[in-house]
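Is this the right way to post structure tokens for a design question? Let me know if I should format differently. Anyway, here goes:
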């Protein structure tokens, strides 16, 4: 057995272990939102949904919330200076259901990101003992609030966030979004849920938080100029000693994040550096993803070109194994055809390209926009830019 063959076998074992670890992270979410009886005394829960130009999503979102089976519910929708039919659609729900309230932000003040201002504005008008922040692209099953409220109360959780079911309908969604969501593996749920571990994360698509905790930690005002409001809020809440928990919400909630490649790119640019854990983690992550998903293909092409039969067999086995793994996880995790696993190299390359673009934009001070507004809260560089004052 040659040295090259030994190295390739070691490489194959490394990739197998890496994929097994990645799969185990996803498995840790399954079934974590266990069914729990509601408490005898039902606290008032206020849902708060910020909506800016969401005419495509807001009707479905509001329909899911008004059909909740939780009996003590207040529904607050925040029209964040929408320029489309969002206010008209919300007015229909106000006319039909007295529990629905619409708040207008009246313009975003300086020093605030738009979503944080909208969430803050909604929270000020909400009267619930619990605040439930949800995004406008979410759909709530009828049991969402009752399941999550009961679970939080029974387990003394102060801040509950969910990983929902991601709806992937279009080609680019199926190619890109699963590869992007694998980044969440750097936030294993057992660590996030451990009060003795400082690791914190949240999914802004669903955050259920005690009002007393929200106010004590400063809420969205404390993270008003941060790029990732959900992660930042989770860090503050957990850092203050309150209990943070992330659970599997696929049975009670679904989300369609984006519908085309342009939307995917814009959303990923906003989140890229912060979501991957900062500058060092972003760079290491890109290198790791390249080694894991792209390098085997490069080596396989080389092995074929130089007519190395043993290397070709080993590398082909690696690539076939990856196709099977990504096909299986997409089928089980996202209900998409398993054949979509063959697209993992395309999703990987485009994901790396978007992450690189986001890093360059952050480092150079270029604009990163979301819904027509500049996003504040760029992660700081660990070193000064060339030519900056060294004083």
């Amino acid at each position: 057995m040659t040295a090259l063959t030994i190295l390739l076998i070691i490489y194959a074992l490394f990739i197998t272990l890496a994929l097994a670890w990645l799969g185990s992270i996803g498995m840790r979410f399954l079934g974590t939102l266990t069914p729990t009886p509601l408490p005898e005394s039902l606290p008032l829960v206020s849902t708060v949904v910020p909506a800016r130009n969401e005419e495509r999503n807001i009707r479905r979102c509001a329909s899911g919330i008004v059909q909740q089976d939780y009996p003590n519910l207040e529904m607050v929708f925040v029209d964040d200076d929408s320029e489309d039919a969002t206010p008209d659609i919300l007015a229909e729900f106000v006319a039909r259901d007295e529990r629905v309230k619409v708040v207008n932000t009246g313009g975003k003040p300086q020093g605030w990101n738009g979503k944080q201002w909208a969430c803050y504005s909604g929270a000020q008008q909400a009267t619930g003992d619990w605040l439930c922040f949800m995004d406008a692209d979410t759909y709530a099953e009828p049991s969402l609030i009752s399941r999550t409220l009961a679970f939080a109360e029974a387990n003394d959780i102060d801040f509950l966030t969910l990983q929902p079911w991601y709806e992937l309908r279009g080609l680019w969604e199926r190619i890109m979004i699963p590869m992007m969501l694998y980044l969440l593996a750097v936030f294993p749920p057992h660590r996030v849920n451990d009060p003795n571990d400082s690791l914190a994360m949240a999914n802004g698509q669903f955050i259920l938080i005690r009002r007393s905790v929200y106010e004590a930690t400063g809420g969205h005002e404390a993270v008003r100029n941060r790029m990732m409001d959900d992660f930042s809020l989770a860090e503050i809440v957990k850092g203050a000693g309150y209990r943070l928990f992330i659970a599997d919400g696929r049975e009670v909630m679904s989300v369609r994040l984006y519908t085309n490649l342009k939307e995917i790119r814009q959303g990923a640019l906003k989140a890229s550096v912060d979501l991957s854990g900062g500058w060092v983690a972003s760079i290491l992550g890109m290198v790791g993803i390249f080694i894991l998903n792209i390098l085997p293909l490069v080596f396989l092409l080389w092995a074929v070109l130089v007519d190395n039969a043993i290397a070709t067999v080993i590398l082909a086995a690696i690539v076939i194994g990856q196709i099977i793994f990504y096909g299986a996880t997409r089928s089980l995790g996202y209900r998409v055809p398993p054949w979509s696993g063959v697209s993992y190299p395309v999703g990987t390359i485009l994901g790396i390209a978007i992450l690189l673009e986001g890093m360059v934009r952050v480092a150079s001070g270029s604009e990163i926009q979301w819904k027509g507004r500049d996003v504040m809260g760029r992660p700081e560089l660990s070193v000064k830019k060339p030519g900056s004052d060294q004083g």
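Format looks fine. Someone answered above. Worth noting: The first helix runs from residue 3 to 27. Residues 380-391 have pLDDT under 50 and may be disordered.
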